[in-house]
């Protein structure tokens, strides 16, 4: 996509030949179906990916996607239609389909479209968009990672490294007259090291990224840090013993372990689940739902973070939202539909995977605020327990909060000291209940390095997580020892 087209202002007119007068006409016809609210979501995405394995870049791809999604809302009914062809005819056809699905007793009229608005914030300024970086530079980065990982330890037998880059341009037009767009860069670097020794084969993974420029990976030697952490985890797991099972105190390390908070608690605080009364947190605003040491935040305004966005996918400015404050539930994450039906303010959390998907309440960067306790004192307080540094997969039941998470790096804590690395550790518990058992919160809060992707109802969006070191009393730990 040429530079002169890389702005929402020129997106429709120069690339697709659609002007504001045509859009107003289409929107007016749209609302004849008696709907309360309607919007158009235009999107252009350019996505590149490179993959290295066995010392060679074996995969390379470039995908271009574009289209328009049309939504109509009447009461609690939503009609949604989309087209991968951006033309006035297709927009009108999609509008008729969406309004027919949602038609009800609404009586909105189109407000004249305003001049395209710019988001108040620019959270991710970059000099060169990710997809404009020469492929040779990206290949050199992967080659350096491969060599560095193999040099870390001779037991590292294979390295898998991938670098994905994305340029996304969105433009949102609503029946309230709002016209607003955003240009969103995104990088993600993933590294997996495979270690082998006498038939024992283990892996370690790390990575990072965000809404950044390519030089980010070289600043502060970040790619070196990522590579060493992946290699170290692989070697650590190679030397690990089986995890003993039982109920024990668990200490979660800072940063990526916040994924447990995201899955076990965060999803339950999304408005759609609570409006439908299917969340374990339904009807509990103002009630104590966690230890008073716990304050949980969702913040889409942190510069350059993977989960940050200048505006959400409904055109609402993102914000910092306090979900739980000193253990008390304060509110939910809202999109337009659920905020209106629940009579609650918007929080800027209406997100979608692409133009082919309707928006829904989703997290951005979700984390636990730090406490005042040094991490060493938290470890020292545990006589016999588990120290979980990183997590792999997990499953959560939103209706009751029950979860199962597998640690990808963990250690035993014995007499106040971190000792033997273990593998196969699984944490089993209940999300709303687990926060009540947080007995110590560290002063070392970290956000993850920037690799999180959240799935919900078949849609995936980039997110961030984080937490300080915390101690949770009496978690069920599944193991193989």
Describe the structure.
The protein has ten helices and 24 strands. It has 481 residues and is of the alpha+beta class. It has two domains: 3-238, PmbA/TldD superfamily (PmbA/TldD fold, 2-Layer Sandwich), CATH 3.30.2290; 242-478, no CATH class. The strands form five sheets. It has a six-stranded antiparallel β-sheet. Strands 11-10-9-14-23-20 form a six-stranded mixed β-sheet. Helix 2 (20-30) packs parallel to helix 3 and helix 4 packs parallel to helix 5 (222-238).
**Count of structural domains:** 2
Instruction: Determine the fraction of residues in helical runs and give it as a percent range.
Output: 10-25%
Unreliably modeled segments: none
* Number of strand elements: 24
Q: What is the CA-CA span between the terminal residues?
A: 55 Å
The strand order across the widest sheet is 3-2-1-4-5-6
Query: What Rg is obtained from the alpha carbons, in whole angstroms?
Result: 24 Å
Largest sheet: 6 strands, antiparallel
Shape: globular
SS content category:
alpha+beta
Average pLDDT works out at 92
Measured by DSSP, the beta-strand proportion falls in 35-45%
The DSSP helix count reads: 10
């Amino acid at each position: 996509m040429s530079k002169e087209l890389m702005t929402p202002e020129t997106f429709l007119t120069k690339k697709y030949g659609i002007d504001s007068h045509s859009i107003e006409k289409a929107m007016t016809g749209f609302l004849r179906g008696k709907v309360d609210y309607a919007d158009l979501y235009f999107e252009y995405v350019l996505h590149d990916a490179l993959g290295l394995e066995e010392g060679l870049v074996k995969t390379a791809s470039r995908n271009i996607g574009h289209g328009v999604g049309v939504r109509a809302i009447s009461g609690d009914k939503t009609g949604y239609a989309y087209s991968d062809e951006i033309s006035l005819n297709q927009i009108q056809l999609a509008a008729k389909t969406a309004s027919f699905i949602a038609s009800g007793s609404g009586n909105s009229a189109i407000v004249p479209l305003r001049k395209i608005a710019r988001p108040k914030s620019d959270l991710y300024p970059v000099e060169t968009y990710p997809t404009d970086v020469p492929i040779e530079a990206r290949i050199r980065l992967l080659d350096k990672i491969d060599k560095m990982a193999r040099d870390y330890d001779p037991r590292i037998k294979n390295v898998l490294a991938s670098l994905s880059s994305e340029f996304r341009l969105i433009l949102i037009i609503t029946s309230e007259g709002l016209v607003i767009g955003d240009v969103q860069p995104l990088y993600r670097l993933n590294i997996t090291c495979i270690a082998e020794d006498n038939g024992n084969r283990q892996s370690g993974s790390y990575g990072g990224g965000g809404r950044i420029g390519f030089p980010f990976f070289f600043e502060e030697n970040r790619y070196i840090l990522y590579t060493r952490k992946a290699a170290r985890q692989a070697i650590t797991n190679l030397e690990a013993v089986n995890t003993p099972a039982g109920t024990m105190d668990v200490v979660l390390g800072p940063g990526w372990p916040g994924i447990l908070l995201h899955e076990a608690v965060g999803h339950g605080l999304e408005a759609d689940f609570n409006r439908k009364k299917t969340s374990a947190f339904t009807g509990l605003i103002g009630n104590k739902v966690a230890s008073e040491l716990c304050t949980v935040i969702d913040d889409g305004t942190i510069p350059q973070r993977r989960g940050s966005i200048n505006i959400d996918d409904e055109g609402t400015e993102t914000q910092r939202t306090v979900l739980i404050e000193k253990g008390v539930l304060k509110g939910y994450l809202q999109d337009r539909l659920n905020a209106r039906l629940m009579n609650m303010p918007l929080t800027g959390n209406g997100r979608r995977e692409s133009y082919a998907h309707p928006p829904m309440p989703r997290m951005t960067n979700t984390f636990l605020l730090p406490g005042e306790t040094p991490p060493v004192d938290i470890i020292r307080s545990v006589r016999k327990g588990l120290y979980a540094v990183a997590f792999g997969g997990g499953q959560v039941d939103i209706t009751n909060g029950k979860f199962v998470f597998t640690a990808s790096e963990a250690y035993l804590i014995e007499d106040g000291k971190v000792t033997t690395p273990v593998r196969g550790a699984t944490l089993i518990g209940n999300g709303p209940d687990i926060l009540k058992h947080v007995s110590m919160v560290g002063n070392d809060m970290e956000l993850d390095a920037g690799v999180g992707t959240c799935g919900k109802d078949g849609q995936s969006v980039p997110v961030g997580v984080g937490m300080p070191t915390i101690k949770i009393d009496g978690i069920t730990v599944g193991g193989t020892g």
